[in-house]
Amino acid sequence: MKRWIALLLSLAMMPVFFTGCGPKNIASQSNLDTPQLHVRQGMRKLEAGDLAGAESELNYALRLDSRYVDAVCGIALVRAQQGRMADALAEADKAMKLADNRWKVYSTHGRVLGLAQPKDWYEDALKDFSKANSLAGADLAAKEEILYYDGLTRMQRYRFSEALEKLAKVVEMRGDFGGPADAAMDKVQKILRARPGTDASSKVALQPVIDRGDLAVLLVDELDLPTIIAKHRKKAPDTSFSAPTDPMKMPDGSPQGVTEPADIQNHWARTWINDLLEHGGMQLFPGGQFFPDAEVTRGEFADVIVNILADVNNDPGLTTRFFGETSKFPDMNSSHPSYNAAAVVTTRGIITANLTTGNFDPMGTIDGADALLIIRQLQNELRQTFR
Asked: Could you count the other beta carbons within 10 Å of the beta carbon of residue 320?
């Protein structure tokens, strides 16, 4: 009998036990210590690129209210920026389950889909933004935010004309997102002018800073440099003796005379880089490395361009022509290793110096859209037609 009583008592206590194991909200320490305030601070930190600070503020908001959906939305965006895409999608789905009647939830879900890009993501993201816009009603600030991220998402799918239309509407609304939308429009307009010919080039065009792997893609896909070099390079006749080759021997498929650098073997741009190393256009560093993830400076880009022009036009003197003259740029001595290249590309209008200061800024970086426009200028210089 005592055992039955003990069993009944333990069963009666089980709901209390499981309730006690659930997340408990902490007490607010002041009238300003609210989930809303911490979410606002967390989102400011996220926009500033402080992912650790953003996560800390958003998690604190969830400790105050474990079901506060705006904090869950914020965590989803933090996870996406951290590259934890599966977790980001899970948090975005969680937010939808908590409050499927909030525009913020659908807008966040669309943004996360655009960043994570799972299978068939694009149409689902557009549906999310459409639903968010419907739920926003007459809230113009909400509609502006939704339109802005809708435009950015279309950029991620390389729908640049559609993105431009959405972003233009944001600018017309003259709200908080007007400035960022205007900057995004500038990038889109550059990309549309440059007309990337492949998805790989479109991907590079969206980069805030290009690296050597990105440049290899542009030189191969957009300039078609291997074909240009093969067509225009003037080779001296080879009069040396070569033993006849065995006609029955099968080729091994590896580029002749080229050893693949170890640091590109698992890189996404490996095939483009190998094309350039085989035909010319970019060189290895001492030690045989390519450094595909190293950022391309304006000076390096100029050097690459001048080497291409000298090679294609059989004009080796072009690589030294302007050394020792009175410098054209306030920030460069004419003995600078990249000075000659800077002088060549600016004289020919391929890369421009700063219109206000006249500086060339050889150590400055280049974004993807500007890099694509430079490739087009080089293409014009080589009298190639757009692809």
From this structure: 11
CA–CA separation, 213 and 387 (whole Å): 21
Domain holding 165: CATH number?
A: 1.25.40.10
The 10 Å CB-count burial string (b at 16+, else e) for 49-84 is: eeeebbbbbbebbbebbbebbbbbbbbbbbbbeeee
- The dihedrals phi and psi of 365, each to the nearest 5 degrees, come to -95, 175
Q: Are residues 95 and 209 in the same domain?
A: no
Structure tokens at 141: 């600030």
What is the sign, positive or negative, of the torsion defined by CA atoms of 17, 21, 22, 24?
positive
Q: How many CA atoms lie within 13 A of 200 on its CB side?
A: 15
pLDDT tens readout for residues 348-387: 999 999 999 999 999 999 999 999 999 999 999 987 433 4
Q: Kindly indicate the confidence band of residue 160, based on its pLDDT and cuts at 50, 70 and 90.
A: very high
Determine the Cα angle at 47 with ends 41 and 53, to 5°: 50
> What is the span of the domain harbouring residue 73?
22-194
Tokens at residue 365, please? Answer: 């970086």
Asked whether residue 224 falls in the same domain as residue 362, the answer is yes
Q: Which two tokens stand for residue 106?
A: 């659908």
Report the number of distinct structural domains present in the chain: 2
